[in-house]
Amino acid sequence: MKVLVFGARGMLGKDLVPALSVKHQVLARDIEDLDITDQHRVQKEIEILRPQVVVNAAAYTDVDGCESNKELAFAVNADGARNIAAGCAAINARMIHLSTDYVFDGTSSAPYREEDPPHPLNVHGSSKLLGEHYVQEILRDHLIIRTEWLFGRHGKNFVDTILRLAAQQEELRVVNDQRGAPTFTKDLSWAIEKLLEKEAKGILHITNSGSCTWYEFARRILREKNIDHISIIPISSAELTRPAERPANSILNCHRFETLVGQKMRNWEEALKEYLA
Ligand SMILES: NC(=O)c1ccc[n+]([C@@H]2O[C@H](COP(=O)([O-])OP(=O)(O)OC[C@H]3O[C@@H](n4cnc5c(N)ncnc54)[C@H](OP(=O)(O)O)[C@@H]3O)[C@@H](O)[C@H]2O)c1
Question: Is 162 contained in some domain?
Answer without folding.
Answer: no
